[in-house]
Amino acid sequence: MKKVLGEIKRHLLTAISYMLPLVVASGLLIAVGNLMGGQVVTDLAKMTVPSAFTSLGVLGMGLLPSFIAGYIAFSIADRPGIAPGFLMGQIASFLGAGFLGGIIGGFLAGYIAVVIRKYLKVPRWAEALMPMMIIPTLTAMIGGLIMYFVLGTPIVWITGGLTNFIVGLDQSQKVLYGFIIGAIGCIDYGGAISKVPNLICDGLLLEGITEPEGIKVLAAMVPPIGVTLGLLLSKVVKKRIFTNQEVEAIKVAFPMGLCMISEGVIPIAMNDLVRTVISTSIGCGVCGAISFSFGNGSPVPSGGVFVIPAMSRPLVAVLALLIGSAVTAVLLVLLKKPLTEEQAANIAEEVEEEVDLSSITIN
Question: Which residues form the PTS EIIC type-2 domain (predicted)?
Answer without folding.
Answer: 8-345
